[in-house]
Amino acid sequence: MDAGRVALRGTHDARAFEVDVTVSRDRPRRARLNGDTLRSAEHLRHAFHTLVFTPDRLAVVKGGPAVRRAYLDRSLARISPAKAALPTEYATALGQRNAALRRVALGISSRDALAPWTASVVEAGAALVAARREATALVASRFAELATRIGLEDATLAYEGDPPSHTELEAKLARDVERGFTGAGPHLHDLRIEASARDLRTYGSQGEQRTAVLALVLGEAQAIVERTGVEPLVLLDDVLSELDGDRRRALVEILVGGGQTVITATAAAALPVEPAQLLIVEDGDVREA
Q1: Which end of the chain is more exposed for a tag (fewer CB within 10 A), N or C?
Q2: What proportions of the chain, in percent to the nearest 5, are helix, strand and coil?
């Protein structure tokens, strides 16, 4: 098969919608919402407040700081939509300062010309760090509680990094000019994910890392409800395969009473309770059980 299409109709936040997504081997993926073509299919997740757990999301724990920063900025946009532009504004200021640093290194600009770009990085960086810390704090307490309920004890979530200052950037100026890169700021920060004072990236088992990512998704869902009043759609792919019976039941208890959740599993027997709707996918055919 060279192409596929999924079309949906329904209601979201009391409003009707129509969505279709087309996937092709030789063309970019295309998504349409109520007849309008979206710039990317990723915009659907924001339009519908959708959170996703898939096995490849373990990169949030296992990957490098850049992966966690990107995750945190997406989470920030969902929790506080009014602050969604802050990462882009900071990236723009940072790019301008880095370009100015390279001009200084080439001798075609003076160090005095860096001042406005340094001020922009300091201002935009302070706003971004404050927003990231706020989003982290909203998720952190929920993350700890949810992780405990599904089997990961003493889990903590913390933002690592301070806002850039004029003093810090001036102290690093010679090095920054040499490298053509700003050596301080939120583009270098990290989100620390631990359990029992262990960094799960380095010292966590595969099961612990999966549980941490699941707790992050569920914690963010609760934070979105509190901040925006909107119940997000939660998609959990193959989430049950490494949970024992008690943890599966604990997961269902967390989900009951929340918004719509879709769970995929290889067998209906993996589900600890009777679902509101059960769909069987077999040989490309979808049918209700």
Answers
A1: N
A2: 50, 20, 30
